[in-house]
């Protein structure tokens, strides 16, 4: 007896809003089962994971620092996903932005270059990410290839490209043969917000992005055309909005914000290029975008939640000797739970009596 | 409501007794009764939303009634699924066909049958059925190459192979030319002559009066009457269906025609293979103050014509479309709207409106280029809302809530919204595809009157419609579209249903369209 999903009319906004919260609760239940299966006390594990980091000022700062790239990338992804364009390759755009931005930092290394270096690096980072993002957009518009596949595959191209650079031409000659670049000069580093601690200028950038994106998506014709293109493509064409331009536009924005996140991270907390510059921010940001209902303010909240799983994961690694993969499991469970909750809110499962092909 | 059919046997094959079906707060069928006798053609009449489809779905097992019962040969029966109804000889031909384009006729038929009959013997049975009932169908043709009328015949053949006692035809003539309709009527007569029952669902009163022995009328989900349609006038049946006199739009008041607002010169559009005909050498002139109708069976290039006019598909020669003296063939939809043209596509949900966006957001679809609502790319919501309220008030758009999603509106109300959105932009040219498709009679009359008034104010109106009665009623001139070609428009007074019908079937010999005046059999 096959099952069928039936679209439900008249979904209350309360149910729509509750869906992510239900998903969080389900994730915690699954997590508890996992901890028990691993032989740990789930209450202690949750305390270490989710409660203790919130009590410590230093980790709170770290939380914001980790949320920053998630927020930037997630907002960019919201542009894509609202337009029904599935950019899965933000991780690659992040790397591409980091590489292009770092090029300037390395090219000016040891020179007397002035304070223009950092802004130029940020600009290059955004351009690098946007260019990388435009590749799947072009392939889709020109050849109709699935952007899901092409954007994802380009992640690995970018990552291996970075790997080559830091092991080859951009390797620090005085770096004892470690695969990393020189440490950036001060003019190429993100300033710290209070002169000390962990918070850096990228946090301001991310918050400004929230404000600008909220306005663009909610108040402008551009935002409207993105939404319309995703919701009813034929109506969008009828309204006179060019589908190709929207596709290029959302991939460019999404890539630029991911690239910006990449260069901010390299010029900020990391300070140099190395083979691994992201614990999977580009992928985790997909969850942040979905959990945040594709709304910039929602993504602000969900980025903090997901940053907590990173911080908690690090803490659990140290004090409980749990592998970091537990964090990945958490994030994956959360994504599946959100997607399932979304489907169950909008659709009802019905059994279909008999097999009919009218 | 006693049995009084003289040609039909008095025993009902299938009878619905006080069936009730609710969908949430909506009572789609409220104690509806219907009895179909062997050997009769029974009409089910009602406007859109009267509950016809719900009733049919309960008769064939697709829906279960909340209360009431079905009688089969006088004994209560349950149809838990369509297969059990089919097993009892209930066959349905729906408006939307369930055929696979890439497969042949015989393969499509085989898919619907139990067991594994060799295709060759099945093709033989199809041929028998075809010759017996005059249904021209070739078993080994690909369904994708068939016309709509042929596809309908495939569906009918598929039903007949199951030897049904009751054949339900859901709005069968809405996709047929007058000629094809005639041959369908002959088939129906043959079927009832064999003692089968036919339930004929339609809102075309003339054909119901000709063809059917009895008619059950539904209105607002309720049983209204069972009548002998041969004894009733079309106006009388319409009154039963609508519950009031149907208002007629005012006939054309003669006024001077103005400048040409739309000029098509050798408009050519290449076919894209998958979706219907291309356009060949279309010439047309519409002047300010007139309504020109384009008749034709669906799939003859109307969609391509609409998309070429609206700018969704650009044409090679920009001079082949001239809007208000400006070559417009190379302009996109927004630029054409800037020339004060307005467009209303056939599909309301998904084309004219985004189903999951609010109604006020849907205002933006065609008004974002007009200057007032969007300035420097910023949407000015207060102006948008006031324009939205003007549409709702001026065009009597009814809905629940303050600003629902477009999906939540009934067909008639959404169509009034879509028309109002264009009319209030004060266009000099309106192109409307199927203005009253699936719209209730009152809304349809309102829409026609509105377009009539717009024309009187000096707007040029192009109406593409498959409803010939509608065009005869309110267009000034009518042209016919067939296989991507357009005949020269002829004043309504100088043509007839027969001439138009011939042209719809593709008989485009010169003069066929110019039948003598006064032969029109359009009664109402």
From TrEMBL, chain A:
<feature type="transmembrane region" description="Helical">
    <location>
        <begin position="329"/>
        <end position="347"/>
    </location>
</feature>
<keyword id="KW-1003">Cell membrane</keyword>
<keyword id="KW-0472">Membrane</keyword>
<feature type="transmembrane region" description="Helical">
    <location>
        <begin position="280"/>
        <end position="309"/>
    </location>
</feature>
<feature type="transmembrane region" description="Helical">
    <location>
        <begin position="93"/>
        <end position="110"/>
    </location>
</feature>
<dbReference type="GO" id="GO:0022857">
    <property type="term" value="F:transmembrane transporter activity"/>
</dbReference>
<feature type="transmembrane region" description="Helical">
    <location>
        <begin position="203"/>
        <end position="226"/>
    </location>
</feature>
<keyword id="KW-1133">Transmembrane helix</keyword>
<dbReference type="GO" id="GO:0005886">
    <property type="term" value="C:plasma membrane"/>
</dbReference>
<feature type="transmembrane region" description="Helical">
    <location>
        <begin position="58"/>
        <end position="81"/>
    </location>
</feature>
<protein>
    <recommendedName>
        <fullName>Sugar ABC transporter permease</fullName>
    </recommendedName>
</protein>
<dbReference type="Pfam" id="PF02653">
    <property type="entry name" value="BPD_transp_2"/>
</dbReference>
<feature type="transmembrane region" description="Helical">
    <location>
        <begin position="12"/>
        <end position="38"/>
    </location>
</feature>
<keyword id="KW-0812">Transmembrane</keyword>
<feature type="transmembrane region" description="Helical">
    <location>
        <begin position="116"/>
        <end position="139"/>
    </location>
</feature>
<dbReference type="InterPro" id="IPR001851">
    <property type="entry name" value="ABC_transp_permease"/>
</dbReference>
<feature type="transmembrane region" description="Helical">
    <location>
        <begin position="246"/>
        <end position="268"/>
    </location>
</feature>
């Amino acid at each position: 007896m096959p099952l069928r999903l039936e679209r439900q009319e008249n979904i209350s906004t309360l149910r729509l809003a509750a869906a992510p919260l239900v998903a969080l609760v389900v994730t915690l239940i699954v997590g508890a089962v996992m901890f028990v299966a691993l032989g740990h006390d789930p209450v202690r594990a949750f305390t270490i994971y989710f409660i203790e980091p919130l009590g410590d000022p230093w980790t709170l700062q770290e939380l914001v620092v980790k949320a920053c790239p998630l927020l930037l990338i997630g907002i960019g992804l919201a542009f894509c996903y609202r337009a029904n364009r599935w950019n899965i390759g933000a991780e690659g755009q992040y790397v591409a932005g980091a590489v292009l931005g770092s090029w300037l930092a390395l090219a000016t290394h040891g020179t007397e270059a002035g304070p223009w270096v950092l802004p130029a690096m940020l600009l290059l980072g955004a351009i690098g990410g946007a260019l990388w993002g435009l590749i799947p957009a072009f392939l889709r518009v020109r050849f109709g290839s699935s952007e899901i596949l092409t954007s994802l595959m380009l992640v690995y191209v970018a990552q291996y490209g970075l790997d080559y650079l830091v092991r080859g031409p951009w390797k620090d000659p005085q770096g004892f043969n470690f695969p990393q670049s020189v440490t950036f000069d001060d003019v190429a580093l993100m300033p710290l917000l209070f002169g000390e601690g962990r918070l850096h200028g990228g946090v301001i950038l991310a918050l400004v992005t929230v404000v600008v994106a909220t306005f663009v998506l909610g108040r402008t014709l551009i935002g409207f055309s993105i939404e319309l293109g995703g919701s009813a493509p034929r109506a969008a064409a009828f309204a006179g909005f060019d589908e190709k331009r929207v596709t290029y536009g959302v991939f460019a924005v999404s890539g630029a914000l991911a690239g910006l996140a990449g260069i901010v991270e390299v010029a900020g907390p990391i300070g140099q290029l190395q083979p691994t510059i992201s614990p999977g921010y580009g992928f985790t940001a997909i969850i942040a975008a979905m959990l945040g209902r594709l709304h910039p303010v929602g993504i602000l909240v969900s980025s903090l939640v997901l940053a907590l799983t990173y911080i908690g994961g690090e803490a659990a690694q140290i004090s409980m000797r749990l592998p970091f993969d537990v964090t990945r499991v958490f994030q994956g469970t959360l994504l599946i739970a959100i997607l399932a909750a979304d489907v169950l809110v909008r659709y009802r499962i019905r059994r279909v009596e008999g097999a009919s092909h009218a | 409501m006693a049995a009084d059919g003289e040609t039909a046997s008095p025993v009902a094959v299938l009878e619905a007794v006080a069936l009730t079906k609710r969908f949430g707060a909506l009572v789609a069928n409220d104690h509806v009764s219907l009895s179909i006798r062997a050997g009769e053609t029974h009409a089910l009449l009602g406007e859109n939303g009267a509950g016809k489809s719900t009733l049919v779905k309960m008769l064939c097992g697709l829906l279960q009634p909340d209360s009431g019962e079905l009688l089969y040969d006088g004994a209560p029966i349950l149809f838990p699924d369509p297969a059990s109804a089919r097993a009892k000889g209930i066959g349905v031909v729906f408006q939307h066909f369930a055929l696979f384009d890439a497969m042949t006729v015989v393969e499509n038929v085989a898919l619907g049958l139990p067991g594994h009959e060799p295709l060759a013997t099945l093709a033989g049975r199809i041929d028998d059925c075809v010759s017996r009932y005059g249904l021209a169908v070739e078993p080994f043709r690909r369904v994708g190459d068939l016309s709509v009328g042929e596809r309908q015949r495939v569906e009918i053949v598929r039903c007949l192979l199951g030897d049904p006692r009751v054949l339900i035809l859901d709005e069968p003539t809405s996709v047929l030319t007058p000629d094809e309709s005639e041959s369908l009527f002959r088939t129906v007569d043959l079927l009832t002559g064999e003692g089968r029952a036919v339930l004929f669902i339609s809102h075309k009163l003339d054909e119901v009066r000709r063809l059917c022995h009895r008619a059950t009328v539904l209105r607002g989900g309720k049983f209204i009457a069972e009548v002998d349609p041969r004894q009733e006038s079309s106006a009388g049946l319409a009154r039963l269906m609508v519950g009031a006199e149907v208002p007629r739009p005012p006939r054309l008041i003669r006024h001077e025609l103005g400048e040409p607002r739309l000029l098509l010169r050798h408009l050519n559009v290449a076919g894209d293979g998958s979706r219907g005909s291309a356009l060949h050498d279309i010439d047309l002139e519409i002047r300010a103050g007139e309504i020109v109708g384009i008749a034709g069976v669906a799939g003859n290039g109307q969609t391509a014509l609409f998309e070429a006019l609206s700018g969704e598909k650009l044409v090679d020669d920009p001079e082949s479309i001239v809007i208000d003296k400006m070559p417009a063939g190379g302009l996109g939809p927004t630029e054409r709207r800037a020339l004060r043209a307005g467009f209303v596509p056939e599909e309301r949900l998904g084309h004219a409106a985004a189903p999951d966006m609010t109604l006020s957001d849907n205002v933006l679809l065609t008004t974002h280029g007009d200057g007032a609502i969007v300035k420097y790319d910023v949407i000015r919501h207060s102006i948008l809302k006031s324009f939205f309220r003007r549409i709702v008030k001026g065009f009597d758009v009814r809905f629940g809530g303050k600003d629902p999603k477009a999906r939540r509106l009934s067909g008639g109300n959404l169509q009034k919204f879509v028309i109002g959105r264009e009319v209030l932009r004060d266009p000099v040219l309106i192109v409307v595809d199927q203005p009253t498709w699936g719209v209730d009679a009152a809304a349809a009359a309102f829409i026609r009157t509105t377009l009539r008034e717009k024309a009187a104010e000096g707007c040029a109106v192009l109406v593409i419609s498959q409803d010939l009665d509608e065009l005869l009623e309110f267009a000034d001139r009518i042209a016919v579209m067939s296989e991507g070609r357009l005949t020269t428009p002829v004043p309504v007074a100088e043509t007839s249903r027969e001439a138009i019908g011939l042209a719809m079937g593709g008989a485009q010999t010169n003069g066929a369209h110019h039948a003598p005046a006064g032969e029109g059999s359009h009664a109402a």
